[in-house]
Design a protein that fits this description.
FAD/NAD(P)-binding domain; single chain; 3 domains; 466 residues; seven-stranded mixed beta sheet; 14 helices; Enolase-like, domain 1; alpha/beta; 26% strand; five-stranded parallel beta sheet
Length: 466
């Protein structure tokens, strides 16, 4: 029976980064993954394939929608959907092989099969052929991630009624697509098919899109998407969906009360969020009970059971790959006797639409609810020279700082490449920086990043370019 210092169940961003760090610290480590490929949801059917399609669809829309023509580039594009899907698959395959290489590089044993805990210090792995083997270990790290949340009354068949995985592999461009859920996943995948020619209607239970994000940014983003052709039905509760051979009839009614409405579409995408994945994990064998949402609680990644740790989507906090990665490092460093730490106040979030939405720290709504006095600096991309010259003037940057100390409390943006630009604010916040620190830091011209600096200047009222 194999003996390990650490056995990690789950090969997603949390799991494989935990394995890498454990290998670097000289711990004898095994990683268990049942999918057959490392990378988890993010790499195989989430973050990465969706970005491949977002990237390709942006180029197609630019060529087909007149943007290229405006730049003096005249082309008549033809969509080759099978090739678009093939290049996505090739990219994903290369990334999964890269993760597998990193396991070998860091002397981590990759065990293929579904892992379950079988009492203290034991993980049983069931291989594809049904055979089982037991791994003995001093520490078990649960990193099993999450799965799409089902919608009561709606059966996902991944034929006509699809989840996020199905939306990455549609065999055709829908003439019409209904997206249930106005969150990150729904708006990103809706954007892909909208760019390729689908009419997209978003049905959302709440009276706003992007719950949890800064309201001003969310409202501005909704206006931009509406201008792009998205249709929104907000404050709408889905009551049923009936799939047929050629389409779906989806019924919803106003949350506030009123008559039911039926929408017909080629496909319906259910994207109302994700839930922790703990099926068949054997938690009961060590006395761990998830809460009613399926979340396994943790205290500095400890489950409360000696030698059993938890990270990523399966525990509390935002379901983000980079959050899982940072938890992985901190968790393994604690196992190794080091001072593992993660700052939960500085976890950026990005929506990879066009334009992008990026956020970090507190929103205005958070600060108002907490009674914190703050100042706001804003700068529109319409006044940014690089964005203007690139015809990317939609959106703005907003920086929130403490009214007394000027310490940056949050930043929120909608605009071109803000997903990359937000990292500058994250670094400043990590060092306890003030808005003045960014405002007085020389930025290259002409770049979109100058919008961050100008917004920081605006906190103290000396924005110079607008």
């Amino acid at each position: 029976m194999a003996q390990y210092d650490v056995v990690i169940i789950g090969g997603g961003p949390g799991g494989y980064n935990a394995a890498i760090r454990a290998g670097q610290l000289g711990l004898k480590t095994a990683i268990v993954e049942g999918r057959g490929k490392l990378g988890g949801t993010c790499l195989n059917v989430g973050c990465m394939p969706s970005k491949a399609l977002l990237h390709a669809s942006e180029y197609y829309e630019a060529a087909a929608g007149g943007e290229f023509a405006k730049l003096g580039i005249e082309v008549k594009p033809k969509l080759n959907l099978p090739q678009m899907m093939a290049q996505k698959a090739e990219s994903v395959e290369a990334l999964t092989k890269g993760v597998e290489f990193l396991m070998k590089k860091n002397k981590v044993e990759y065990v293929k099969g579904w892992g379950r805990i079988d009492g203290a210090g034991k993980v049983v792995v069931k291989a594809e052929d049904g055979s089982e083997k037991t791994l003995e270990t001093k520490n078990i790290v649960i990193a099993t991630g999450s799965e799409p949340t089902p919608l009561p009354g709606v059966t996902i068949d991944n034929s006509r009624i699809i989840d996020s995985t199905g939306a990455l592999s549609l065999p055709e461009v829908p003439k019409s697509l209904v997206v249930v859920g106005a969150g990150v996943i729904g708006l990103e995948l809706g954007s892909v098919w909208k760019r390729l020619g689908a009419e997209v209607t978003v049905v959302e239970y709440l009276d706003r899109i992007l719950p949890g994000t800064d309201l001003e940014v969310a409202n501005a983003f909704q206006k931009i998407l509406t201008k792009q052709g998205f249709k929104f039905q907000l404050g709408a509760k889905v009551t049923g969906a009936e799939a047929g051979a050629k389409g779906v009839k989806l019924t919803h009614e106003p949350v506030a009360g009123g008559d039911a409405v039926t929408i017909e579409a080629d496909y319906v995408l259910v994207a109302i969020g994700r839930r922790p994945f703990t099926q068949g994990l054997g938690l009961e064998s060590v006395g761990i009970t998830p809460d009613k949402r399926g979340v396994i609680a943790n205290d500095h990644y400890k489950t409360g059971v000696d030698g059993v740790w938890v990270i990523g989507d399966v525990t509390s906090g935002p379901m983000l790959a980079h959050k899982a990665e940072d938890e992985a490092v901190a968790c393994i460093e604690l196992i190794a006797g080091k001072a593992g730490h993660m700052n939960y106040d500085i976890i950026p979030g990005v929506i990879y639409t066009k334009p992008e939405v990026a956020t970090v720290g507190k929103t205005e709504e958070d600060l108002k609810a907490a009674g914190v006095a703050y100042k706001v600096g804003k700068f529109p991309f319409l006044a940014n020279s690089r964005a203007k010259i690139n015809h990317e003037g939609d959106g703005f940057v907003k920086i929130l700082a403490d009214a007394k100390t000027d310490r940056i409390l949050g930043a929120h943006a909608v605009g071109p490449n803000v997903g990359d630009m937000i990292a500058e604010v994250c670094v400043a916040m990590e060092f306890g920086g003030a808005s003045e620190d960014i405002a007085r830091t020389c930025h290259p011209h002409p770049t979109r990043s100058e919008a961050i600096r100008q917004a920081a200047m605006g906190v103290e009222g000396w924005t110079m370019q607008a």
